[in-house]
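STRUCTURE REQUEST FORM
Protein name: Subtilisin-like protease fibronectin type-III domain-containing protein
Source organism: Eragrostis curvula
Requested output: structure tokens
Priority: standard
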Amino acid sequence: MDLRSAFASTFLLALVLWMPLPALASSKLYIVYMGEKKHDDPSKVTASHHDVLTSILGSKDEALKSIVYSYKHGFSGFAAMLTESQAEELSNFPEVLYVKPDTHYEAQTTRSWDFLGLNNDQPSGLLQRARQGEDVIVGVVDSGIWPESRSFDDRGYGPVPARWRGACQTGAAFNASGCNRKIIGVRWYTGGVDAEALQAAGEFMSARDMGGHGTHVASTIAGSPVRNASFGGLAAGVARGGAPRARLAVYKACWGPRTRCGGAAILAAIDDATNDGVDVLSLSLGGFQEFAGTLHAVARGIPVVFSGMNDGPAPQTVRNTAPWVVTVAATMMDRSFPTVMQLGNNERLVGQSHYFDAAANTSQFRMLVNGRRCDNTRLLASLNASGNVVLCYAPEDAAFNPPRQRVGDAIDNVQRAGGMGVIFAGYSSNLVDFTDRCSGIMPCVVVDYEIANRIAFYMATTRTPVVRISPAKSVVGDSVLSPRVASFSARGPSAEFPGILKPDIGAPGVSILAAVRDSYQFMSGTSMACPHVSAIIALLKSIHPDWSPAMIKSAIITTGMSSTHTAKNNWFVTHIFNFASYSASMNDGFGMPIQAEGVPRKLADPFDIGGGHIDPDRAADPGLVYDIDPSEYTKFFTCTLRPRDECLSFMGKLYQLNLPSISVPDLKGSVTVSRTVTNVGPAEATYRVTVEAPAGVDVSVEPEELAFTVDGSSNATFTVTFTARQKVQGVYTFGSLEWSDGGDHSVRIPIAVRTVTEEFVADV
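Status: completed
Returned output:
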């Protein structure tokens, strides 16, 4: 979800929108999963669902009233309104694999694509080779779309691809003309929501996007180029998607001001998208647990991309961690918005904001008031905040009340007290989007505690402290340290599956400018990082249509930004922080290790950013890939449903899945892991291995050289043996394994290992 929307609505309204319908007060929505389809004909699959419900409810009429969604394309299952006892009875049917109550989830640009190197300046680059994603169909499951946005202009597009089987579902303020050769189909799903309450909140009972989240995501993926886009003059340039010639299929499963999404509706959207003919599925949603739909989509060759959640920098917060999906972390790009604050003593200090009110009299000084926490409107009024600029500076609160949870309320409180400006102090540098709510009203600036302390000192030593705040400026390029992992980006290890290393990859997700209704606005979150990866996958699908989702995922992870390894020889940098040299091979544009915003800021490791920062052009030509048979995914999924004896060994050794990463969470003595790579580069090639061993672990690889010939197999298997140097209940340390052909191809996978003496010991 984007960060601002998470704080935008009241809790009470959210409760009203998602209360059970009055007529079904004794029932609630349940998801029933029945596994693989028994029929190819969707109508027969749906009929079987009616039969099962009829046997529970007593009549066909009651079954038809109860069922909300029938999942009939990618798999078999349904969502229905049931009482608890009916759900329990249904779970005992032999053909039913599980019955779960429906769960709700929250939905988690001009510069970013140039920053990633996807531009028209490279004739042989991925964007040109993929013909800008021409005719690739990207399915977006989100909050809908605003079809009138200039980003969805279809001029110059040919006919809709003949393979498309979707529909243009009309509704309130969305007729058939809302679809075109760019937005080739829309569907919307209201099962389990109170339509009257949603409409009262301003929601459209159609695919039209109320809050802008879905429109922002869709335009980031495939928006047509729009010149002179900006946010009040900031970040001015050409707004476009990463795959600007791709087609969009929109599935609205998220509703209301908080962009809440029902699990049953998301499953229905995935099921329809699988049948409609999408090539890629993008879901900027948080914590989705209904693995079935995404598994069946991937098994049918459709890559699925998820946001990794916004609960960082705390560890073990990453979600959407199934091994078959791509889970995306959010990073910062090479753009900032410095805002000059001149104090009455002529000292000039710089913060960050999106303040653009050009009509304001920037030569005017205003009184400075210390609002401390800025959490009490009455206190602010008593401090004479009206008409003045308020400093919100409470470093003592940082430990128990993070700035991200306070900044929105602080700004609102100052506005209610009549303030004419806010200077908010926090340790996170990813708060700037919150200042958008001040645009056109007053300047709101984010600073760190050092700058705030200087302002506070000036105020304490001056009888009449004043400040003048100038509009922000857009600064891009080498003067901005980038990329960096955003502080809010959720971190590994996966609490659900520690043997699967997540997140997979990092992509821009901070202050992304993209379409919202008829304008262009900034949003931040892993929701904004996810569509960047979705667009790149669309381009990869265009030039490698025969690659499986696992191969595409591997290409992205193994080619993450690693550049020239210029910091590898700096023993102090790479070891003093106990990163076992991993960060040294994951460098930014300056050849320095990528940093992760947090408390405190540190060098990034695989639990921050997976394989590194996405590098689109290198992903198009990875050399080797780690493919995987979907049946292995199915075995994993089956074991999560109904653990059997054979599952104990399998689930305890998830590091044996042929993934482009290795995570060993329970190394006691020695463990040997097997991997198979497929050569997708030159037929004649020899690769040699380089290992950066995690601290405290010995690593050996057999063989150390892989040779491919024209007449030989394109697959090669190797083993990696990890041996703990000492018996200790340790912490995760990191490393990498890289195959290189000595030329253009370096295929690197991240490694995370934790030594243990006892199983299931809490790391607290």
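Reviewer notes: The first helix runs from residue 3 to 6. The radius of gyration is 26 Å.
Form closed.
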